[in-house]
Amino acid sequence: METAYKTYYSQGPKDIKHHSTEQLREDFLAEEIFTPGKIVLNYTHHDRQIFGGVTPTTEELEIVLNKSLGVSYFLERRELGVINIGGPGAIIIEGKEEVMKKQDGFYIGKETKDLRFKSDDPSDPAKFYVVSTPAHKVYPTVKIAIDNITPMVTGDSKTLNHRRIYQYIHPNVCESCQLQMGYTILSEGSAWNTMPSHTHERRMETYLYFDMNDDTRVFHMMGEPTATKHLVVGNEQAIISPSWSIHSGVGTADYTFIWAMCGENITYDDMDFIPTQDLK
User: Fold this and answer.
1) Between the chain's N and C termini, which has fewer beta carbons within 10 Å?
2) d(CA 271, CA 13)
3) In the predicted model, what is the mean pLDDT of residues 110-129?
4) Which cofactors does this protein require (predicted)?
């Protein structure tokens, strides 16, 4: 049986000019990512990225997408990034089982056919966050263990954005066609995930916000720099950020997020910064 997914169609800056809060949430927010025993996927027409959660409990789970993508199997023409944010588990890749503790990641190359997910303990399931983008070339599948990543420390407590950035799928770590993926942890007392704001016209991005208390919320800033809007985001919810939109967030307490980019290039610092005084 094909894995179901929700489709998000592309929206431009003119489209959202008069959007209500409800319309913004419908077009850019994925409120459900992890459901025990299920696969929850979302397909955005912004650069055709697929993102979502795989949460196995008592049985292994497999993403089955062929007819809906016009292919014979899911990764026939795609690459995949995975980061586990839950309990211990494993990924079975072409018959080989790879252990995945919390914060471990994987880059899985195009043309991988046999791919399954499992948890060690159904009462504390793994939560595999997955992101897939179209791919034109086979690059090697690589495990990216959190123990082997040296985080990039950036920001400042004075500007409330001191944070550690863990690069997973990135030219410094492994090769990919267009997918980039990483993990950012804000320091206690910091609230902004980035500032000044920026856009990257050549790439879109999705954000998964997590490791938040029940009453913590992130105000995700989006829209054109001179016509900003915002979405209020809860724990384990994800945002679609088009290439024309800023993507800054500020939380009521510290939080963590996974960013995943795809598009024209894989140049991490290809950003167009917006002076804070120009935001409106």
Assistant:
1) N
2) 19
3) 98
4) Zn(2+)
Question: Is 276 a member of any domain?
Answer: no
Q: Name the pairing type of β-strands 5-8 and 38-44.
A: parallel
Q: Is the four-CA dihedral 244, 245, 246, 248 of positive or negative sign?
A: negative
Whether residue 205 is annotated as binding a ligand: the answer is yes
Residue 200, marked binder: yes
Which residues sit opposite 83 in a β-bridge? 105, 129
Q: Does 3 fall in a domain?
A: no
Cα 123 from chain centre: 25
Do the domain assignments include residue 53? yes
Distance CA 24, CA 18 (A): 10
CA distance 279 to 246: 10
CATH code (residue 252): 2.60.120.10
Provide the whole-model pTM: 0.95
Residue-wise pLDDT for 2-47, tens only, equals 999 999 999 999 999 999 999 999 999 999 999 999 999 999 999 9
Six token digits for residue 99: 């252990």
- The type of residue at 24 is L
- 275 inside domain: no
Q: What is the pLDDT of residues 194-207, one digit of tens each?
A: 888 888 888 899 99
56: CB partners within 8 A, 6+ apart: 37, 89, 117, 118, 119, 125, 126, 128
Q: Whose structure tokens read 């999705």? A: 206
Range of the domain at 83: 12-265
**Model confidence over 66-118: pLDDT tens digits?**
999 999 999 999 999 999 999 999 999 999 999 999 999 999 999 999 999 99
Annotated binding residue 198: yes
